């Protein structure tokens, strides 16, 4: 049985002072050593980094987790993101998968959700490098899409560049839901934007391909609830070589990425993996 952990509802952080909160504490990064792989780790108070070129198995709250090669993560809620901000790292790509508020989620005690107004408290401008590509997963509700385009991105100084669609299909290539369904759609939306940057940044990124304003991504969805596909390969042509990448509200890790969330290693539990035998 997997131990459930986290900091509870993301919404516990209403109306915090973003500047004083994120700049009040010194950065703390714990880099794994060989001996840590078999030790019980304290993952709550600092960024944890696997510096090795292979996955590491670590123990947390008596359960085993696999950390991908060269991955970094911070396990916290929105009120405890200062280690991430104060590390000084600036990212070329930031992907967000917020737990959007909706009626069915609010009626259920199973899933956390975050009000749109609270997303404005995320320190994205403090984490973004000049010209950073910011990508947000959003539900099909027009209200949420409008909020990102007209409120959230402008607040962060991000110019909306594109709107892509992830189309969910079966193994035989059919939509997982009818396209005209009134309840569930067979697609989700990605809104892409770039941090407003000066001419020097634009000239230095001239080797990066132009971002298409529309694009369809097709894949068979995971059987795990709300588990999105990795965007690393899809976004590679539109970000610098050797990019610094960050995922916010992550529930799993990726090699060469930093990740944050209150369930950031949930899907790294060993129960989700099969050990291959030689």
UniProtKB/TrEMBL annotation:
GO CC annotations?
cytosol; nucleus
Signal peptide (from-to):
none
Q: Which GO terms describe its molecular function?
A: nucleic acid binding; RNA methyltransferase activity; site-specific DNA-methyltransferase (adenine-specific) activity
Q: Which GO terms describe its biological process?
A: methylation
Q: Which InterPro entries match?
A: DNA_methylase_N6_adenine_CS, MT-A70-like, SAM-dependent_MTases_sf
Family the entry assigns: Belongs to the MT-A70-like family.
Q: Which PANTHER family match?
A: N(6)-ADENINE-SPECIFIC METHYLTRANSFERASE METTL4, N6-ADENOSINE-METHYLTRANSFERASE
Record-given protein name: Methyltransferase-like protein 4
- Species the sequence originates in: Danionella cerebrum
């Amino acid at each position: 049985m997997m131990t459930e952990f986290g900091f509870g509802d993301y919404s516990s952080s209403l109306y915090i002072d973003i500047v004083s909160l994120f700049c009040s504490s010194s950065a703390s990064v714990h880099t794994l050593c060989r001996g840590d792989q078999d030790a019980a780790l304290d993952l709550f108070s600092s960024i944890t980094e696997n510096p090795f070129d292979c996955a590491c198995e670590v123990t947390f709250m008596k359960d085993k987790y696999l950390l991908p090669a060269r991955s970094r993560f911070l396990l916290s809620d929105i009120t405890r993101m200062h280690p991430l901000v104060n590390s000084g790292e600036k990212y070329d790509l930031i992907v967000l998968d917020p737990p959007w508020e909706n009626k069915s989620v609010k009626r259920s005690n199973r899933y956390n959700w975050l009000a749109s107004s609270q997303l404005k408290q995320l320190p994205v401008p403090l984490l973004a490098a000049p010209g950073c590509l910011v990508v947000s997963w959003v539900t099909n509700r027009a209200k949420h899409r409008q909020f990102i385009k007209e409120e959230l991105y402008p607040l962060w100084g991000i110019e909306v560049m594109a709107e892509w669609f992830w189309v969910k299909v079966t193994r035989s290539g059919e939509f997982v839901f009818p396209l005209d369904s009134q309840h569930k759609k067979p697609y989700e939306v990605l809104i892409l934007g770039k941090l407003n940057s000066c001419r020097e940044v634009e000239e230095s990124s001239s080797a990066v391909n132009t971002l298409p304003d529309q694009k369809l991504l097709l894949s068979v969805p995971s059987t795990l609830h709300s588990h999105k596909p990795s965007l690393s390969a899809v976004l590679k042509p539109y970000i610098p070589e050797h990019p610094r990448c960050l995922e916010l509200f992550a529930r799993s890790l990726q090699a060469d990425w930093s990740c944050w969330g209150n369930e950031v290693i949930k899907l790294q539990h060993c129960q989700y993996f099969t050990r291959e035998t030689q």
